[in-house]
Specification:
The structure holds two protein chains of two kinds.
Chain A: H1 3-11, H2 13-46, H3 48-52, E1 54-56, E2 59-60, H4 61-102
Antiparallel strand pairs in A: 1-2
Chain B: H1 2-6, H2 14-19, H3 37-58, H4 64-69, H5 76-87, H6 90-103, H7 108-132, H8 137-142, H9 147-181, H10 185-233, H11 238-248, H12 253-256, H13 265-280, H14 283-286, H15 295-327, H16 348-397, H17 404-428, H18 435-458, H19 464-484, H20 486-490, H21 506-522, H22 528-545
Helix pairs in contact in B: 3-10, 3-16, 5-10, 5-15, 6-15, 6-16, 7-13, 7-15, 9-10, 9-16, 9-17, 9-18, 9-19, 10-15, 10-16, 10-17, 11-15, 13-18, 13-21, 15-16, 16-17, 18-19, 18-21, 19-21
Classes of the chains: A mainly alpha, B mainly alpha.
């Protein structure tokens, strides 16, 4: 593909909208478990008493927080999987066929 | 709170080792018990089944595409189980239990890294890996950067990471098989080496994948049965289970609260970074994303992998590890003359299997451990061989002049060489403390492979010069920081004080890798820079829209 065509497509608002939407969604989701983990590690280092406090049954705050991080990872990957299949891929196909008609 | 743990402070770098399997300690006098008929039977069954898989796979492995990527015909969920298997070495189920057994609550860091790693895979990498690469992660980098220097860099980094990991696994495997099946160390290492070469050389990626799937299923069933058996032992009452563990633990508050590993924020963050991004940068895991037909299956496989890993880890951490503390610790049946656990702490889950499931279950769990060893070393061998044959030989030495058939032949030869070298190193390192090898492998993956790969996917400003200078510096610093740190400088070389103070250097070498990539690219005014930007534009279009040729 020559550079002018590439630039024409990349600068079109519909292309930029799709790319922007998709990358915002992906980066936000990917960072959620990481942020939860960094918070967890901060409490582990600076608030060990809080992390060790009994929270629910035999589980302490930290042990529940761990389960939440794992659940968040599973939830996020599942959500991304479905969102990209049901929203982004159809949007991509639609944009593709529109661009194709124009050429 | 934290002072309470200082009396039993673990040597800091012991943590990753426990997790990634260390050779069980064998007391000179206490030789391993005779293995049961069930153990021998399941052991032979695993060898026969895996060789059967290899024979079947060999019929479907002719072209380079079939050898490296199983013809991209693996289904998403199958690949997911294989990726989970690649991550869960024998260490996962021996080492995680052992780590909980000694460090209590703090071992949770190890089970919280997979959710981070697999979220990155699903959201940021799976699609692009699948759309831009063919057989190895170097393909993705070379899709926009100058292939020759980048192949040399990526091939070398992949080889270093995979071989070090492989040797660490091999030494652990030899010791483990010695204890479980009473096979002498040398024979055990040679046998594992020969089996892995057979799987890879004849069956390529297809055999490696199915061996890995078989093992992942066995591991999940074994762990699930063990968790239920532990709960059954305590009449399905978590309170009795945890109370039993607490009475055996010197510092009960460390079982449910922090302090066991004595980690500060930066050490904890660096440990977690190394683990999570080490997974993302591991060549043998990245390779699996090329075995599926499309981006959707690639994302699905990372999701399935996370589900499988989470299932095993949650059961081990919240039930089995606690059960081991309650039933194995201070149990005279499992203590040797000096009061330590027979075979070392890595064996606690094996002992636990005997308590809750008797001789038969002990035999089955031992065989599952054996299967996990075989599957993981096979995956690593394939990754090492591909780095040699696909990245270094076909794309650098001969630049695709020799054809695909020849490339497959070279990778088979490389497989045999990797096998011979690993058997040799496995024997040479038998008596060594191999803790640092795993730290090295993960450090290299997180500091060299990961920065270059993610920047080449997402940052248009990356230039060839920036990528190879930054990646090489990441690689060199990952190695240097471990060598100058407590694990090698103090423990192996015997100096008083480490030159590099922390036992968890991955965060620092990764930051160094990233910032050098950025800095050198930023001030790279070579004429290639413009071309590479254009190439990036085209690749962006390809990842966003698919077959862009039809639009021209």
């Amino acid at each position: 593909m020559d550079e002018t065509t590439a630039r024409r497509i990349t600068s079109s608002p519909e292309y930029q909208a799709l790319v922007g939407r998709r990358s915002r969604f992906a980066w936000t989701l990917a960072l959620i478990p990481a942020v939860l983990l960094v918070g967890f590690l901060a409490c582990l280092a600076w608030a060990p008493g809080f992390m060790g406090r009994p929270a629910w049954g035999v589980f302490s705050v930290g042990m529940l927080w761990g389960l939440i991080i794992i659940a968040a990872g599973l939830g996020i990957t599942w959500w991304y999987l479905h969102h990209s299949e049901n929203v982004f891929e159809p949007a991509q196909r639609e944009l593709f066929s529109r661009l194709k008609q124009r050429t | 709170m934290r002072q309470a743990g200082s009396g039993r402070r673990l040597s800091l770098f012991a943590a990753p080792t426990l997790f990634f399997l260390q050779a069980p300690v064998i007391a000179a006098d206490a030789s391993a018990r005779e293995p049961s008929m069930v153990a021998i039977g399941s052991f032979l069954a695993i060898i026969i089944v895996t060789l059967g898989i290899t024979g079947w796979a060999a019929k479907h492995t002719k072209t380079a595409h079939e050898f490296y990527a199983a013809g991209s015909r693996i289904r998403g969920w199958q690949n997911g189980l294989a990726i989970a298997g690649d991550f869960m070495s024998a260490a996962t189920f021996l080492g995680t239990t052992a780590l909980f057994f000694t460090a209590g609550f703090d071992s949770i860091i190890f089970i919280l890294c997979p959710p981070i790693a697999y979220s990155i895979f699903v959201c940021l990498m799976a699609e692009r890996l699948r759309n831009l690469g063919r057989f190895t992660f170097a393909d993705v980098i070379c899709a926009r950067l100058d292939p020759v220097p980048m192949r040399i860099f990526a091939g070398a980094a992949a080889l270093v990471a995979a071989v070090m990991y492989l040797v660490a696994q091999m030494v652990g495997a030899g010791g483990l098989i010695q204890v479980l099946f009473a096979i002498p160390y040398y024979y055990a290492v040679a046998m594992v080496g020969i089996l892995m070469v057979l799987y890879v050389a004849f069956g390529g990626m297809l055999a490696t994948t199915w061996v890995q799937i078989t093992k992942a299923i066995l591991l999940m069933l074994g762990v699930a049965y063990m968790a239920v058996a532990v709960l059954h032992y305590f009449d399905f009452d978590l309170r009795t289970l945890y109370a039993g563990a607490m009475t055996n633990y010197e510092h009960p508050q460390l079982l449910t609260g922090p302090g066991g590993l004595q980690l500060g924020f930066l050490s904890a963050l660096s440990l977690a970074t190394g683990l999570a991004l080490g997974i993302v940068g591991s060549p043998h895991i990245l390779m699996r994303f090329f075995t599926v037909p499309d981006a959707h299956s690639a994302r699905l496989s990372a999701f399935v992998a996370l589900a499988a890993v989470a299932f095993v880890f949650v059961l081990i951490y919240y039930i089995i590890g606690v059960g081991a503390l309650a039933l194995v610790k201070d149990n005279p049946a499992f203590l040797d003359a000096s009061g330590g656990i027979i075979g070392g702490t890595n064996m606690v889950i094996i002992h636990l299997a005997e308590v809750v499931g008797g001789e038969v279950f002990l035999g089955i769990i031992s065989a599952v451990a054996f299967a996990t060893i075989l599957a993981v070393v096979a995956g690593l061998t394939l990754a090492s061989a591909s780095a040699v044959s696909h990245d270094l030989y076909a794309n650098v030495v001969h630049r695709h002049t020799r054809g695909e058939v020849n490339e497959v032949r070279v990778s088979r030869i490389a497989t045999v060489c990797v096998g011979v070298i690993t058997i040799g190193l496995g024997i040479a390192f038998q008596k060594q403390n191999i803790a640092y090898l795993v730290a090295l492998a993960l450090g290299v993956a997180a500091s060299a492979n990961f920065p270059v790969l993610i920047l080449s996917m997402y940052w248009g400003g990356l230039t060839t010069r920036g990528a190879w200078v930054g990646g090489s510096l990441g690689l060199a610093s990952a190695v240097l920081f471990v060598v100058l740190g407590p694990a090698v400088w103090v423990e192996i070389l015997g100096f008083e004080e480490p030159i590099f103070p922390t036992a968890y250097p991955a965060l620092y070498s990764m930051i160094l890798g990233f910032s050098t990539c950025w800095l050198v690219s930023r001030f790279d005014y070579s004429h290639k820079r413009r071309q590479e930007r254009e190439k990036f534009l085209e690749l962006q279009l390809r990842t966003q829209l698919g077959h862009i040729e039809e639009l021209a």
